[in-house]
Every structure is written in structure tokens, then in C-alpha cells.
Amino acid sequence: MTTFDDRERAFETKFARDQEVHFRIIARRNRLLGEWAAERMGLTPEETDAYAKAVVQADFEEAGDEDVIRKLAGDLTAANVDISDAEIRAMLNDKAAEARRQFIDSAN
Predict the structure, then answer these.
(1) Residue 71 pLDDT greater than 80, yes or no
(2) For the structural domain made of 27-107, what CATH number should be given?
(3) CA distance linking residue 102 with residue 31, whole number of Å
(4) Dihedrals φ, ψ of 17, to 5°?
């Protein structure tokens, strides 16, 4: 029975690690997305840092990416930046790839 118990523990450990990695990559993606949006809005470096943190926090409102997209769209529109949801979604994908690369580079 210990072989099965060991396998079960190994799978549980791998699952927990995979979830942690996913969370870190998504948080990094949201931070990069916030920095991009802050640049588009012309925020100062201090404001950019605070805004990027706010975008990361916005992702905890509901499951999925819609809460982040809604925040960015609303804030960019309020700052008179002409942007579509499609552009935000495309940047979300770009920043996800960048965050994944950064995570892999930092692990090596």
C-alpha cells in the first residue's frame, strides 16, 4: 500500500506546485498588463506601481479574466484612451506569454 500512498502524495504535491506556478504567472501577467495600461494613461512611476498592484488585486473579484478586462477598459476609457476590448484581450495574451517567459527565466 505504501507505493500507492507515495504515488498519491506525489500527485498531490505536483498538483499544488502546478497551481502555485499558475497563480504566480497570472499575477505577473496582471502586473505587466497594469504597467502597460498605466503607460497608456500617462501615469507617473509611483502611480504606475500602485495601478499595477490594483490590477493584480482586481483579478481576485471573480474567476476568469473578465474582472481584469473590465477594470482596464473602464480605467482606460476614463483616461480618454481609445481602446477596444479586443486590443485589451490581445495584450492580455501577449503579457501572459511574457510572464511565462520571465517565470521560466527566473527559475533557471
Answers:
(1) yes
(2) 1.10.790.20
(3) 12
(4) -65, -45
